[in-house]
Write a structure and sequence with these properties.
Structural class: alpha+beta
Radius of gyration: 16 Å
Shape: globular
Order of helices and strands: EEHEEHEEE
Distance between the termini: 38 Å
Length: 141
């Protein structure tokens, strides 16, 4: 997006490395889980705000390299998540260690044209409030 609204300019380039960004979201979840487990926080969640449909829609390809990190509607995230074996070195450099989720997360459908995802480990879900007017993620029960 390149626009001027009033006197303010916005230059937001299209993010084409969605596979890496999806992995970053999962990595952030593991960081929050670790902070909770280690007693550094009493509650926590990961919030993802995007207007890019590729984050909440299934992949167009049958078997993308980031299948494990996909966050589309109806997806359950749990266990060990890693790149497909055919993922290139440029994608996986510094990101080759599989990520282990301690909790189970359900990706819920979007209700608006932008996406707000609140990810909270199941043991701390009561402390995260989800808006009724936006889409969110909640730990599976």
């Amino acid at each position: 997006m390149d626009a001027t609204i009033g006197e303010e300019s916005f230059d937001l380039p299209h993010q084409s490395a969605n596979d890496i960004s999806r992995q970053d979201v999962i990595k952030d979840i593991t960081r929050i889980e670790a902070a909770l487990t280690d007693g550094h926080a009493d509650s926590g969640c990961v919030v993802v705000l995007t207007n890019d449909r590729s984050y909440w829609q299934p992949a167009a390809r049958a078997d993308p390299i980031d299948t494990a990190f996909r966050q589309h509607e109806g997806r359950i995230l749990e266990g060990t998540l890693g790149w497909a074996a055919r993922a290139g070195h440029g994608t996986t450099t510094g990101r080759d260690t599989p990520l282990l989720l301690a909790s189970r997360y359900t990706c819920e459908p979007p209700r608006v044209s932008w996406r707000l995802q609140v990810l909270a480990p199941a043991t701390h879900a009561a402390t995260c409030v989800k808006s009724t007017t936006t889409a969110g993620w909640a730990p599976a029960r």
